[in-house]
Design brief:
The structure is a single chain. The protein is 44% helix and 17% strand. It has 362 residues and is of the alpha/beta class. The strands form 2 sheets. The chain has a 5-stranded mixed sheet, sandwiched between helices. A 5-stranded mixed sheet has the order 8-7-6-9-10, with helices on both faces. It is globular, with a radius of gyration of 20 Å.
């Protein structure tokens, strides 16, 4: 990338307020994340109004801490990047307004970054990954297969037509009384469980293609929970462990089979260098191991960011902007950067089924 550049990345699209300083040589000087788990735990999920208020209160503090940990000031930064969507609109607006003010005050170029592009390119920040690669982006709000051919070149092969896996984990954990966030709690409970005690469906495996569905899986778990509650008056600890293990195994099976199909299709079109997985659910060690096995079977590489880069963070936003800057881009017109609740990476793809009133899945 020539002379090393230093970018500030700002992220506020859901329930993490984050800022990071990243160099174009992939050195992460700081990566500060303020999570809001304690603010939303009592509600069993993210409350948009609470999240937006927390972002507005913390953005300046998180950014100041990131600069301090990096040992630099705003004057030392070559560019500012902000997640402009998709996400909860209040939080995205908070970040965009804050970043615009920083850019105006400092005279630094500003990049409006698609939050999903941040996740999609994060394996290149942590691994020596060449284009093109196949990405499984799997998080609380998104699940899709993307052929990543360049910093701004994304082709969607398929995705979820309803709940994303992270959303299904959260809702299922709430059904079992585990709390929030559901993913880590179900993974922890599943480690002590018997996955064969309950039989859960593997939705859409009987259909061709790479689209996925997790809503029916969540409904099947609800039926088992209701049945146990009616039979024995509630759930025992072992019930929760067994349900968690069966649920997690069902999700893993769907991802494993669909990923194998997507790799085969991608290789037929344009041989890929690797399978990469990114997003919050990519922190699940069981799912990581399953997907790494799929890549090994296909005889291609496997890449997954460290856990600190799986959940939402500012480093991935800064890196996405650095990738664009390496192409010669000098930033966006601040007036063109607007907060977007929906922002598909592949704008040419047909909207997925089940998008409903909220619009097409990103």
């Amino acid at each position: 990338m020539g002379k090393s550049k230093l970018f500030l990345g700002i992220e506020s699209s859901c329930d993490e307020t984050a800022a990071a300083l990243v160099r174009s040589d992939k050195e992460i000087l700081s990566n500060v994340v303020f999570d809001q788990l304690d603010l939303h735990a009592a509600f069993g999920g993210v409350v948009p109004e609470i999240a937006a208020r927390a972002h507005a209160e913390r953005l300046d503090l998180v950014t100041a801490q990131a600069l301090q940990e990096a040992g630099c000031g705003l004057a030392d930064v070559d560019g500012i990047a902000v997640a402009a969507g998709p996400g909860l609109i209040g939080g995205v607006m908070s970040g965009v307004v804050f970043a615009k003010a920083l850019a105006a005050a400092s005279g630094k170029p500003l990049f409006g970054i698609n939050h999903l592009a941040g996740h999609a390119l994060s394996p290149r920040l942590s691994d020596d990954l060449a284009f093109p690669f196949l990405l499984l982006l799997v998080s609380g709000g998104h699940c899709q297969f993307l052929l990543v051919s360049g910093p701004t070149e994304f082709t969607r092969l398929g995705g979820t037509i309803d709940d994303a896996p992270g959303e299904a984990f959260d809702k299922s954990a709430r059904l079992m009384g585990l709390g929030y966030p559901g993913g880590p709690l179900i993974e922890q409970a599943a480690a002590q469980g018997n996955a064969e005690r309950f039989s859960f469906p593997r939705p859409l495996l009987d259909r061709e293609g790479y689209d996925m569905s997790f809503s029916g899986l969540k409904t099947a778990l609800r039926r088992e929970v209701d049945g146990l509650a009616a039979e024995q008056g509630g759930l025992y600890r072992q019930d929760i462990s067994d349900l968690s293990a069966a649920f997690q195994t069902a999700v893993a099976d769907v991802l494993r089979i669909k990923t194998a199909r997507a790799i085969s299709a991608a290789m037929n079109q344009n041989p890929v260098t690797a399978l990469a997985v990114a997003g919050g659910v990519a922190a699940n060690q069981t799912l990581r191991a399953v997907l790494e096995g799929v890549a090994q079977d296909a005889q291609i590489g496997f890449a997954a960011p460290p856990l600190s880069l799986c959940t939402d963070n500012g480093a991935m936003i800064a890196w996405s902007a650095l990738e664009r800057a390496a192409l010669g881009e000098g930033g966006d017109d601040p007036a063109s950067i607007v907060a977007r609740p929906r922002w598909p990476l592949d704008t040419n793809a047909t909207p997925l089924l089940g998008s409903g009133k909220k619009g097409s899945k990103a």
